[in-house]
Every structure is written in structure tokens, then in C-alpha cells.
Amino acid sequence: MKIASIKLTTLGAMLSLLALTACGGGGGAGVEDDSPEANAFRYRQAVMRVIARKMGPMGAMARGDAPVDDAAFRRAASELAVMAGMVTEGFMPEGAIAGSAALPEIWTNWDDFSQKAADLQAAADALATATASGGFEAGQSLVQSTAGTCGGCHRGYRRRAEE
């Protein structure tokens, strides 16, 4: 299990690096913001996108909107648990840049924000553990509550699109 965790952590870091590269360099016309805040923004965007890509198919399977693929469900649950542990890293250092949906309350209420991130981590870990031992059937009922922990942060700490 430790080797799998290391591989998943490496995968997450590689995906983040790939996203950072795709968002920035490559000789674009504009000047890339290479500030610590901009790098944190790109990092958290990459982490959140991967989390969404893991939750989406699991949610669809759990609701019966997609055929159950036990191996894919197990893999997504395991990878979600790794990515959930990377969330708060994307909010360091303090600050949001133009285009970020992060609200300043993240940093003024850091203890609450980090507790909500810990709630996501705990839910993702429980989902991964249940799924590792019992497959889709064991994890299906945990998907909705895990997804609900995402909303715990988004409701209070993320700017809505219309704002």
C-alpha cells in the first residue's frame, strides 16, 4: 500500500507540473506571472481539476448514471484520497491573483478552512479504504458524503461565477 501511495503522490505531482507548464510557459504573447501566489493558484487549479475528474465518474457510477467499472472506481477512490491531501498546499502562500475564485476568508479563517480540507481528506480516505476492501459496493454509499465535503469549502471560501 505504501508503494501505491508513493506512486499516486508522484502522479499527482506530475499532473500538477504538467498543468503548471500548460498554463504558463511555452512562449505565449503575455508575460507569465511567476509570483508565489500565481504558482499556488496554478497548483490548486490542477489539484481541484484532478479531484473533479476523480469524483465525476465515481458519482455517475454511484447514481447509476454510468455503468459500474469496479477497477476504475477503486483506482479513482485511491487517487482521490491522495489528491485530497494536497488541497491546502495550493493556498500557500496567502493571496489570490486575478482570475482566482479564492476568497480572502480562506486566510482570515484558516483554521476553519483547513478543518474543512481535513474533512475532505477524512471522507476521501474512508471512501478509498472501503473501496479497497469491498470494491464499488462498499464505497458507493460514501460518494455523496465525500462530494458534500467539497461544498463545505466551496460555499464559504469560493467566489461564485456571477460575482
CATH topology: Four Helix Bundle (Hemerythrin (Met), subunit A)
H/E element order: HHHHHH
Approximately what portion of the residues adopt beta-strand conformation? under 5%
Number of strands: 0
- Which whole number gives the mean pLDDT? 85
CATH architecture: Up-down Bundle
Q: For the terminal residues, how far apart are their CA atoms? A: 43 Å
CATH C-level class: Mainly Alpha
Which spans of ≥5 residues are poorly predicted at pLDDT below 50? 24-28
* The named CATH superfamily: Cytochrome c/b562
Shape: elongated
| Main sheet attributes: strand count, strand direction, barrel closure | none
Count of discrete structural domains:
1
Q: Using only CA atoms, what is the Rg?
A: 17 Å
Helix count, DSSP H or I runs of 4 or more residues: 6
